[in-house]
Design goal:
441 residues; alpha/beta; 5-stranded parallel beta sheet; 30% helix
Length: 441
C-alpha cells in the first residue's frame, strides 16, 4: 500500500523490524507438481545408490510407493527386478523423469495390467502398458498416472505441510503444472489452505475458488508419440481461439523444433510458455524472441543431474541444456521453476544453480548460460501470468514479501559464492497476500 521512510503503524498493524536487512518480493515457483510433491514426501526415496535396498524393509504390509529411480543407480528396472526385492507385496516405483512407473508382479495383478489389451487407449494415445515380445507386461507403465490412480489405494497427501515448508523458504506462489486437471484436484488443493497464491494449468472451464487462478493449457510431448506439426498447431490454435495461452512440455531438441514451428504456424498468444526448455539450440533463439513466448526452465537440474547429463546426453545437445544466459542475451523471456518433486523443492538451490551451472562433481555445464545473482533471483520473482516480468517492492504491487537475514549486497555475495550452501536459508519472514505465513526470527 505504501513504501517510504518514517512510516507510522496504523491501528492494529504489526511492525516487523528488518534490522537493516533486505525486503524483497516473494518467490513464485513457476513450475511445480503439488500433489506429486506431497505424495513423494510420503514415499520411499530410491534415488540414491542404495535406494532399492530400502524396498526390502519398507514399513507396513500393503502397497509400497517409491520415487526418484534412475537407471544410473542399478540399471534398467522391470517387474522381475522388483520381484527379486519384494515378491509378496505390491510395489510401484516412479522414474525420476515422472514419465514412467515400474510395478512388480503383485502390483501388476492388483491393477489388472495383464488384462489390458495391447491396443487399449489407457492414456490418451501414450504407450501405457509396455509388453515384451510375448505380449506379457514388463511392469513398465508410461504416462499412466491417471489410469493407475483409479486402481491403487490413495496416498495420504499432506499438502498443508508442502505449503508450510515452501513458505519457510520464501515461496509465496505456485504454478501447478499438472496437465490433466479435474474438479477433485481443485477441491483438494483448495482444502489444503495453502498460504501461497495458486495458479493451476489446464484448469479452464472449472469452477475455481477465490485465490486460485487458471493458468495456460498444458501439453506434454514425448518423442515416441510426437503429434504431427499440423496436429500440434491445431491444438494451439483451438486453445488460443478460446482465449487461453498454452504451455508445452519440451525436453528434447525435436520437441523444441516442433513446438516452435507449431507456435509460429498458429501465431503465439500473450502468456504462451515452453516448459523446461531441456535443449534449446541457438538457431531457435531468434524465433523464440519474435514469438514472445516465455521459456520456464529448471537450472536446478544442471546441479542435480548434470553429471548424468555429461554421460547420457548427445554431445551436440550438451551445451544447450536448460539454457538461461544466452536466451536472455538473445532477448528471449525466461523464468524458472523447480519441477518438484522431480527436482528439489528449493528455489534458492535453483537460483544458485543458475549462477554457477556447476554439477555435484564440480563440472560447469554451459558456462555461457550463467547469469548474475540478481538476474537468477528474478527468475523466481515474476508474476504468475507473466513469469518473466519481476515484481517489485512498490505501491500497487502484490503484498508477497520476504524479510531476509542479510542486506541485498550480502545476499548477492552469498549467491555468488561457489562453496556449498545448499542447506542455508536466508529468509526470516515470509508474507504472502499480506499475511505473515512463516516467521523464523
Amino acid at each position: 500500500v505504501e513504501v517510504g521512510v518514517g512510516l507510522r503503524a496504523g491501528p492494529g498493524e504489526d511492525v516487523i523490524d528488518a534490522g537493516g536487512n533486505a525486503v524483497v518480493p516473494g518467490l513464485h515457483d513457476h513450475h511445480v507438481h503439488l500433489r506429486a510433491l506431497a505424495a513423494a514426501n510420503a514415499s520411499i526415496d530410491v534415488g540414491s545408490d542404495d535406494g532399492l535396498d530400502a524396498l526390502r524393509t519398507a514399513p507396513g504390509s500393503g502397497w509400497v510407493r517409491a520415487v526418484g529411480y534412475h537407471e544410473s543407480i542399478a540399471g534398467p528396472l522391470d517387474r522381475h527386478r522388483l520381484d527379486e526385492l519384494v515378491p509378496d507385496r505390491p510395489v510401484r516405483v516412479q522414474h525420476r523423469s515422472g514419465a514412467l512407473w515400474v510395478l512388480n508382479s503383485t502390483a501388476l495383478d492388483a491393477v489388472g495390467a495383464a488384462d489390458q489389451a495391447p491396443d487399449d487407449d489407457i492414456n490418451a494415445g501414450d504407450p501405457g502398458v509396455e509388453r515384451d515380445e510375448r505380449g506379457v507386461p514388463t511392469g513398465r507403465l508410461w504416462r499412466a498416472d491417471r489410469w493407475l490412480a483409479d486402481r491403487v489405494p490413495p496416498t495420504d497427501l499432506d499438502l498443508a505441510a508442502v505449503g508450510r515448508a515452501a513458505a519457510e523458504r520464501g515461496v509465496t506462489g505456485f504454478t501447478d503444472a499438472d496437465p490433466d486437471r479435474t474438479a477433485a484436484d481443485v477441491a483438494l488443493l483448495h482444502a489444503a489452505g495453502l498460504p501461497q497464491a495458486l495458479t493451476l494449468m489446464s484448469a479452464d472451464g472449472l469452477d475455481l475458488p477465490d485465490g486460485v487462478t487458471a493458468g495456460p493449457r498444458k501439453r506434454i510431448l514425448d518423442d515416441t508419440t510426437l503429434p504431427t506439426l499440423d496436429e500440434l498447431a491445431a491444438w494451439i490454435a483451438d486453445a488460443h481461439h478460446a482465449g487461453h495461452p498454452v504451455a508445452v512440455h519440451c525436453v528434447t531438441r525435436v520437441q523444441m523444433v516442433v513446438t516452435v514451428t507449431a507456435l509460429t504456424e498458429a501465431a503465439a498468444l500473450a502468456g504462451d510458455r515452453i516448459e523446461h526448455g531441456g535443449v534449446v539450440p541457438p538457431e531457435l533463439h531468434g524465433e523464440l524472441r519474435r514469438l514472445g513466448v516465455t521459456v520456464v526452465t529448471q537450472p536446478n537440474f544442471v546441479a542435480e543431474r548434470g553429471d548424468r547429463y555429461r554421460v547420457d546426453v548427445d554431445p551436440d545437445d550438451l551445451p544447450h541444456l536448460y539454457p538461461c544466459g544466452r536466451l536472455r542475451a538473445a532477448g528471449v523471456r525466461v523464468a524458472a521453476g523447480t519441477d518438484a518433486p522431480f527436482g528439489r523443492p528449493d528455489p534458492w538451490a535453483a537460483v544458485r544453480a543458475a549462477v554457477h551451472r556447476r554439477t555435484r562433481d564440480g563440472h560447469v555445464l554451459g558456462p555461457g548460460e550463467r547469469v548474475d545473482p540478481a538476474t537468477a533471483l528474478a527468475l523466481f520473482q515474476g508474476f504468475a501470468d507473466d513469469p518473466a516480468t519481476p515484481r517489485r517492492v512498490a505501491p500497487g504491487q502484490p503484498a508477497d514479501l520476504l524479510v531476509l537475514d542479510r542486506p541485498l549486497a550480502a545476499l548477492h555475495r552469498w549467491l555468488d559464492d561457489e562453496r556449498n550452501h545448499d542447506d542455508e536459508n536466508p529468509v526470516t519472514v515470509t508474507i504472502a497476500r499480506g499475511e505473515v505465513c512463516a516467521d523464523r526470527r
